[in-house]
Amino acid sequence: MLDKSETINYRRKYADQARELSAIDQVRATWIVVRQWIVIALGLAFPVAVIYAWTDQTDLLVALRSLSFAGIIAVLSALAASMVVVAGRQHALAVAMHDAVHYRMYESRKLAEVVSNWLCAFPVGLVTSLYRRGHLPHHLFTNQPNDPDWVVLSEDEHFRFPKQRGAFYRLLVGDVLALNIRRWWKIIRFWSGYSFIFKKNGGGFMSVSLRVQFGLFWALVAVGVTMLHAWLYFLILWLVPMYTLVLAFMRVRTVAEHDMSRGDTELQRTRHVDGTFIERHTVAPLNINYHIAHHLWPSIPLYNLPKMHAILMQNPEFRQRAALWRTYLGKNNGLISSMLL
Predict the structure, then answer these.
(1) d(CA 70, CA 57)
(2) Cβ proximity of 32 and 303 under 8 Å
């Protein structure tokens, strides 16, 4: 068994490397955010282009009434593909926000807060400071009574394992069909601007400035979508993925990140998963799967976590004792699969 001092020893042993990898690269941080929006733009444009190719117009309802059976299949397939791509990038925006939560996006915290909110958090209904309020204690007290995440998840039977295989996959289907949204809201409401924007004094957690910014952001979105006559596209390609597919991705990642029953050291309670190509672009975007390295050194920006993990992997003791998994859902060395009966 590892004791707490051994976890501290890892931090001391690699302190110099961690300090070097904790340097913020502002250009790289900017490109990460820009890259997500480029992919989102392409994902949103794809089904519109498919509809136009089949019908010479972009109105979805009109197109569906005029399309042949083959055309309908092509359009529905394009919409489904777009939803998966957009959901993966919405999840990635939340992970990029997570770097700002740890003050690792820009040297200027004010700039980081603005960029994180307007380009990462607000678009998916979150607020950086609201997420930070619960997330930093999660790092300080992982899997302990002072860890807000552990308290909420340990009380939810949906996150108790081991679990019957069929029961877990029914949960994922329920997420995709929005059947679990009420259960999820009990978790995400603490991070969402929608929870506090209309409360007196922001419920004590959301300043006047943040409430104005959050409201202004969504007012601008509403105006833009109205001017483009794109409400149906906005519903199908943005809101639906955000509250269905993203929640399914988050469920898999949340279940995998920590062993809820263990709390002694980071190597016992926190897990690393390599992930397949698809998993790294849906379930665990932007290196959030390097979770042991992140919990040992939250100061390391997301783009440097693979380098820190590679340094750790040179240590035979770490390779032997750390919870290292190849995939999330795969049959061979799949973490979730190992937790199902």
Answers:
(1) 17
(2) yes
Angle at 203 between CA 137 and CA 138, to 5 degrees: 10
Q: Which amino acid is at 291?
A: H
Other C-beta atoms lying within 10 Å of the C-beta of residue 20 = 12
State pLDDT tens for residues 63-108.
Answer: 888 888 899 999 999 999 999 999 999 999 999 999 999 999 999 9
Residue 112: half-sphere exposure toward Cβ, Cα within 13 Å: 22
Number of domains in the chain: 1
- Tokens of residue 47, six digits: 């089904």
What is the rounded average pLDDT of the residues 13-33?
97
Core vs surface per residue 41-59: b (16+ CB within 10 A) or e: eebbebbbebbeebbeebb
Give 170-224 pLDDT, tens digit per residue: 999 999 999 999 999 999 999 999 999 998 887 889 999 999 999 999 999 999 9
Q: Percent of the chain, pLDDT > 70? A: 98
Cα–Cα distances in Å, from 118 out to 121, 127, 190? 6, 9, 18
Decide: helix, strand or coil at residue 166: helix
Residue 304 three-state SS: helix
pTM: 0.95
Q: Is 273 helix (H, G, I), strand (E, B) or coil?
A: strand
CA gap 340, 166 in Å, rounded: 9
